From TrEMBL, chains A, B, C, D:
Every GFO/IDH/MocA-like oxidoreductase domain range: 146-280
Lineage of the species this protein comes from: Bacteria, Bacillati, Actinomycetota, Actinomycetes, Pseudonocardiales
InterPro entries reported for this sequence: Gfo/Idh/MocA-like_OxRdtase_N (IPR000683), Gfo/Idh/MocA_oxidrdct_glycsds (IPR050463), GFO_IDH_MocA-like_dom (IPR055170), NAD(P)-bd_dom_sf (IPR036291)
GO molecular function: nucleotide binding; oxidoreductase activity
Name of protein: Gfo/Idh/MocA family oxidoreductase
Ranges where the Gfo/Idh/MocA-like oxidoreductase N-terminal domain occurs: 9-126
Alphabetized UniProt keyword annotations: Oxidoreductase
Length: 383, 383, 383, 383
């Protein structure tokens, strides 16, 4: 069978958890969405050749490169997808953009504010040459949250009074859980703050359409040493949890919590927004649902509605199954890549941009500084 | 990249809803499960050539056939996947089995008991020649229900006292909803009874490991005429809902309801099992969860647990994402096909067999006869 | 402090569970509702004098009688409240009515259809003399169900298609649970059918405003002998569970289940009604909530609403606390008695009448006959 | 009927919302709990004689006093129950204690830290003479929270890592809602902070058995002027919401939010505690339930349990109804008064003491100072 649809060559760096889920999206996106161009899985980048080859075969990539610079340089690579830890994002992304390749970069945009700023500058410069970039905040592509954004944008909530958002995991609850690169500040930049906090800050700014203008924060490391898997122990150099209060540009207030010690909460990213006219609530452990309270309902029939976000009229859903048939985690990446390819095909910038990612980084940076400074109020300059 | 894994050629008949979801599973199963052989999407069958070609391109099939007999005859087709309405199942399945092709057949197995019996006979004969068959009750592959089966089989529930199961949809709630082949007895065999009832009968027999030995039933057609889309009306010749009570081979009792008029319930397949030691409950609208009550818990800490069925130790989950990251509807088909291919690779019969499908059909048939006969108790002979 | 409000003397027979909760309602009703007359707790009837006296002191009754005939005969008793097992209802109620005393009778109205008919005849005769009677189906006074009735009566649900209702308890789940008068047919009349089934039949007829015109039923006794508490065993002579299907006078269908073996369900009386325009659902384990689906909501914002039935505009709520503050089980009895006293004060008949109780009894009787007769369809003559 | 049980004379000041619910508890406590002494409702204090008399008749008080000093002075008053706004608590409580009357004081203990300290000093002095005092944090008497405390105290949660607690109401969501004494700093001391924040701070310290050692806070007034009901507007001089982060004496962290702008949340006091071994969660809108996650459960059967806190073995429940029958809001006051009377009868100090109330006040005071000082970390000296 032949196809008239144009193609685009993808080079992806990194093949762990994020690499697996991105690969699935690249392979399947055009089976469900009428994207143009259609992705070709050109090359997979990984330092260990044997492991990279095994991953390429498993995930469906045509070639492997052990040096990401070589991957960027390939003629058959038009877009570079960065799925590596945060300490490498800036270098790879800037090089790719300078080489004229579009970039999709996993979140958080970078481990430091300086890197995020350099990346944003590079993205804006590349943009002048039609080279586009996007940061991969996949929760924006959960249909329930995309619909929440539409509801806020329509004015249905009125003035935003409150946002309360948490990202709760529990994989560090036991003091016996082993060290990991995610607990090493050099690799990960921060702990729960950057890994989980980035998602809830982005979700807050995305859903409300407002920015976080300042914060007061507290971080804590509950367990300072953990088994390193070889009989010794390793130092945990990042935060185990981060809590912060914030103000929104529209006059509302917000609270944020990111932790890996909420025993029993496996992957619970929750967001509640209270407006003057309506409220909404979301929990990623029930990601096909949106809770919705319409202040205009008759008082005797008012209550939070459990909207099953599976109707064809809901964002992304027309591509999938009949009402009541659920979507899963990886669909958010398929949606993300559908949006990216559609933007490329239409000659538009995809969202969220590196500037959006920088906006998140500014909040995380302010939180880190506040936590280090007696929780004093810290503004997020630039936001 | 080359692969040493053996392949198997798939020919699929039908390319509507079920065809789309089966195609997705055939394309991706080996990316997540270590199946051998690996499927090749050899040929897609569809009567309208243009539509079949469009579907083949979209879903990734290498060729199309407009005659299912030609599809069965192809040398590159080793397994025939039947995704057509129930009135065609028997003819295609029996022909495929006689041609030495393995068969995967969508549920319900057939529209009549006689057809189901003929298919089962053909399957058992083909089996002697190493030709294998399976009926596609995908709910068995929902991890929560697969885990429920394990819990019952382990003895954790003790004696089964009650099963209460419903399959609720609402797409006919309005009298204005149009006619469809699903409302035409000649095509569909029955209405909610066969379409939805088949799932809950199979789920009951699968999870409990028991059979339904007899039933008392009631069916109803609420709206007898519906707009036919061309200005006229069409006669609804099937049931709109079917309710039946049953007894289980182990001494317990069960209730069943299938309807398309449960306004607000989009696709709610629910199953609750009460045993002498524990209880479990499931709802497909929250399909990543299993409710579990352990009668052995201290009375002050006992309560239904909301198990998020997303742990690596849960059925099928090791292939997917970290705990707390949800799966969707189509995963059940990927699991089904993974189980089928694994059985083929290991030279075992896959489950559920056509005989299992026939066992479901006997219950549906008894329900139909009871409903037609003053709800009188009707045994399901053979079960 | 003096009060100008008229009083009414109450005589209550029985002082176990129902006696305790009725006493609480009689003592407190006028503190919250502007009823007239105000109840005086005149006399408590109980066969064992010592136990009756202890109960009277604890519950606040002014006198005791060991013979219910003497209690009826007292000049200071204007109304007789019957809280004894079902086998005594007919005799006491008829005698009280003939003595010109108003009667409140616990459900089920009687253990047999013949007794219920005699009671209804007596009630209708007494009514000509201004003597009034009411049967105590307290679930009608759960604010959520009273509100459900209002919604149906307003036409908001459109045509009723489905009722599905269950009453699940688990106190017999273990085979070691001891014998009780509730398991003895002579005392209790039936098991789960009359005790629990009476509630869900009444709730169905009350909420829908329709009657159950016929049923097909199945009953089962899972454990035939139980320890009698003195080293021996007693025969269980009633049903452990009863399941039945029914048709409603308006053309809809219904399912009913009553059981004491639903492990983990402590007192779960559930009712779901699906109409052509809206649906509602209730569970007594969350009795301050009503689930409500409005088919008129925009499809993207439609979902079951969790209405907290605690607004002043909800039935009975203006008498209690601010929104969001919950009511409990005994409030339903306070409401029941407030309605009764208000009707007496206004010279109206209270509801539900003995005739309503008889209507429930006819359904239970038909269910019993169907279960004994191969589940054959059995009409509820008179309904 | 006579009773041998000793009695105690109660004088209550204030007869609005809190007066109504306290009266109900005083009237009924001995009908359910074997308390000694038994309360006599001696006198009700209220400035407007006509309104006080009406309330006394409605609630069952034997006399009225228009001057609280006269009420304290009555010989038939042994215990003074203070149900007035916070600005009057100190004066009344101190006078009552000095007059040798036991005191029950509604929360918050006082409007200022200085008053709370003076009250605590007075209480400690009175205690030397056998005069006892208690502050009325009724949420401690919600069975689910009392059980939560027992679970933490038993060590079942291990080390406490996180507390997250909110108290959400919505009665100010509309800018049109009128002024009230609760929005006037002179009367109310503070807004959501003192009214709602006091409950969640006490609940945190009660359930964990730890103290909040410091906080960082933010407060906001969204709507500065509101209609005064007479055509003009009134100035809102208190906070509309208060959010704060805290640290616990055992090393954990906590977050607090109190607001009257959470549209759709009528009275949602929520508390989640994550320990190293188990987690628990509570929501007052489902106050008969406790969520419980036991980290020791097998990973495939672990999940938050919905414990229905209605078993006889649960705190306070043996006095009430069978399992699965719910309690309501006012039961918490009946429990509170049962505990108070039992302590008096046994010659013990009831809890929580004024010192406990002062401990809460210190946290609220620190939060107020932090909010006024750039959210800087503020320790709660004395805690």
């Amino acid at each position: 069978m032949s196809t008239a649809r144009e193609t685009i060559g993808i080079g992806m760096v990194g093949h762990a958890f994020m690499g697996a889920v991105h690969s699935h999206a690249w392979r399947n996106v055009h089976r469900f969405f009428p994207v143009a161009p259609i992705p070709r899985l050109a090359a997979l980048g990984g330092r260990d050749e044997a492991r990279a080859k095994a991953a390429a075969e498993r995930f469906g990539w045509a070639a492997v490169e052990t040096d990401w610079r070589a991957l960027i340089a390939r003629d058959d690579v038009d877009l570079v997808d960065i799925c590596t830890p945060g300490d490498t994002h800036a270098e790879i992304a800037i090089a790719a953009l300078e080489a004229g390749k579009h970039v999709l970069c996993e979140k958080p945009l970078a481990n430091t504010l300086a890197e995020a700023e350099a990346m944003t500058t590079a993205a804006e410069k590349a943009r002048e040459n039609g080279v586009r970039s996007m940061v991969a905040f996949n929760y924006r592509r959960v249909p329930a949250l995309a619909h929440a954004r539409k509801l806020v944008a329509s004015g249905a909530l009125g003035r935003i009074r409150h946002v309360r958002t948490v990202y709760l995991q529990d994989w560090l609850s036991s003091s016996d859980s082993p060290m990991s690169w995610r607990l090493d500040k050099d690799k990960a930049g921060s702990g729960a703050l950057g890994d989980l906090g980035a998602h809830i800050v982005d979700a807050t700014q995305f859903v409300t359409g407002e920015t976080v203008t300042g914060v007061s924060a507290l971080t804590e490391t509950f367990v300072g040493e953990r088994p390193d898997g070889s009989g010794g122990t390793g130092q945990v150099t990042v935060d185990d949890c981060a809590l912060f209060l914030g103000r929104l540009s529209g006059g509302g207030v917000a609270s944020f919590e990111a932790t890996r010690y909420a025993l029993g909460r496996k992957n619970s990213m929750r967001l509640e927004v209270n407006g003057s006219k309506a409220s909404l609530a979301f929990d990623s452990e029930s990601m096909n649902e949106l809770s919705w309270f319409d202040g205009g309902d008759p008082v005797t029939e008012a209550g939070f509605r459990r909207i099953l976000v599976t109707e064809p009229a809901h964002p992304y859903l027309a591509a999938w199954w009949p009402p009541g048939h659920l979507l899963g985690y990886e669909h958010t990446f398929t949606h993300e890549i559908a949006d990216l390819l559609t933007a490329l095909g239409e000659g538009r910038d995809p969202a969220p941009s590196f500037a959006d990612g920088l906006g998140v980084q500014r909040v995380l940076d302010a939180a880190g500084r506040s936590a280090a400074g007696q929780s004093r109020w810290t503004t997020t300059e630039g936001n």
